[in-house]
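Risk register update: the risk of archive-format incompatibility is retired. Evidence:
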Amino acid sequence: MARPKRSLLATAQETSSPPASLDHGQEIARVRKAEGKNLYSVELPAGAKPLLVELPSRFRSQIWIKRGGYVLVDTNAFVDRDNKLDGEIINVVRDEKVWRKQAYWPPEFVKKPAYPDDSDDEESRVGQMPPSDDSDSIE
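Archived output:
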């Protein structure tokens, strides 16, 4: 049977706003790729080796994580266990504009423009009429 809708709404409400501050061991990370079985490879702002993190059961089949998206990771979650997991996803960044305004947002994760500025190339002719030839003019 499907999960109740109130569970889905509660999870969505929980991830809609960022926390006031981050605890020790919590960091914002960018998702590199999905490894399968609710495991994701993420990169931290420091640029160190990628971490393998787990998506907890409360987010599974409710919140979707896309490649290049941001998540809040707790790196202290699996310190006492001896396994290949480096942390656990504790929150998913859904409203990126609100999260970027927080003081703890890493400056390494700057927003990239959708279209790079190509000011060095010649002007675009999109939407313009083709150049006219003087030889076609009627006398």
